[in-house]
Automatic annotation (TrEMBL):
Amino acids binding substrate: S63, N136, E180, N187, Y211, Y262, V280
Gene field: glsA
Biased composition range(s): Gly residues: 80-100
Region of interest (Disordered), ranges: 79-109
Reactions this protein catalyses: L-glutamine + H2O = L-glutamate + NH4(+)
Superkingdom field: Bacteria
Coiled coil spans: none
Protein name: Glutaminase
Family under the similarity heading: Belongs to the glutaminase family.
UniProt keyword annotation of RNA-binding present: no
Keyword Zinc assigned: no
Record text on subunit structure and interactions: Homotetramer.
InterPro entries: Beta-lactam/transpept-like, Glutaminase
């Protein structure tokens, strides 16, 4: 596969869609990003990386971080490494399906929500159990669990992403984190509501703070494509150690396919046919198990919060290559 040639054709196809949609305006720090940016990168399972456009420009990962926090919780739950806040996840080999693997699934479901990512509607009807880990309520539960396991959820994620991406300069964006905190009443309501059902282990202010910091991490398409490679390598990290067993990696990919693009997951699966996680910063990370990981970025969002040009690019990539999970 001539990845570079494919990406250049994909970018040309996506160009008419760049600038369409609406940049996220409910987080003022994101509203200032130009809708005319576009980048796409692919990292194969052996570590080779290719990209076009603004593929090395950092942007706010936002909800893409939810896929990594879920992976870290599933990895840390095995108890093979203590959580001192200085390591992202356990390394080395371990028995598949160890103790604690499924603990998180007692507190969050695995079904599409069918409602907006910040909706409170289902929580009351379902006794404070979020429908899946990729809506905001579910991600707050996952962050809460990661905080319990590591003692510092956001820093643990940052260290992990630095290691997997090979970029030691990755950092939080203070302005974005502050902006989210200033306009985070809905997320606070979600967290307090779940706490009233006993579905949070840590104080609500702490959980919300770590959640905002995770979402504020800045990464490029290159960084995210490389960092997400363990999902294409069936759970193997960049250094060859095992983060997840193959069954766990399969399950994260499955939930990404059915729930990773908010309440447009069915349409996205129909168009693109890949496990994916989007963020309102305009990024989408997508996985082709056994082959590669892609990341595309363009800040203009559709009504569901997914990048318009990004979805068009991934649609064309799978059509052009014939690579999908179907």
């Amino acid at each position: 596969m001539d990845y570079q040639a494919v990406l250049e054709e994909v970018a040309a196809h996506a160009r008419p869609y760049v600038g369409q949609g609406q940049v996220a305006d409910y987080i003022p720090a994101l509203e200032r990003v130009s809708a005319d940016r576009f980048g796409i990168a692919v990292a194969d399972i052996h570590g080779a990386v290719y990209g076009v456009g603004d593929w090395e420009v950092p942007f706010s990962v936002q909800s893409i971080s939810k896929a990594f926090s879920l992976a870290l919780v599933m990895a840390q739950s095995h108890g093979s490494q203590g959580g001192d806040g200085n390591h992202g996840a356990p390394g080395g080999n371990r028995a598949p399906g160890g103790p604690g693997t499924d603990d998180i699934w007692k507190r969050v479901g695995r079904e599409p929500s069918g409602t907006p990512f910040n909706s409170l509607v289902q929580l009351e009807a379902e006794n404070g159990i979020p429908r899946n880990p990729f809506i905001n309520a579910g991600a707050l539960v996952v962050t809460d669990r990661l905080q319990t396991l590591t003692g510092d959820a956001s820093t643990s994620m940052l260290h992990f992403l630095r290691e997997e991406s090979g970029n030691p300069d990755l950092a939080f964006d203070q302005a974005v984190a502050d902006s989210e905190a200033e306009h985070g009443d809905r997320n606070a309501a979600l967290a307090h509501f779940m706490a009233s059902f006993g579905n949070l282990e840590n104080p609500v202010p702490s959980v919300i703070q770590h959640y905002f910091w995770q979402c504020s991490i800045e990464m490029s398409c290159r960084d995210l494509a490389v960092a997400g490679g363990f999902l294409a390598r069936h759970g193997l990290r960049a250094d060859g150690s095992r983060l997840l067993d193959a069954r766990e990696a399969k399950r994260i990919n499955a939930v990404m396919l059915t729930c990773g693009t908010y309440d447009a997951a069915g349409e996205f699966a129909y168009r693109v046919g890949l496990p994916a996680k989007s963020g309102v910063g305009g990024g989408i990370i997508a996985v082709i198990p056994g082959r590669c990981t892609l990341c595309v970025w363009s800040p203009g969002l559709d009504a569901r919060g997914n990048s318009v040009a990004g979805a068009a690019a991934l649609d064309h990539f799978t059509t052009l290559t014939g690579w999908s999970v179907f």
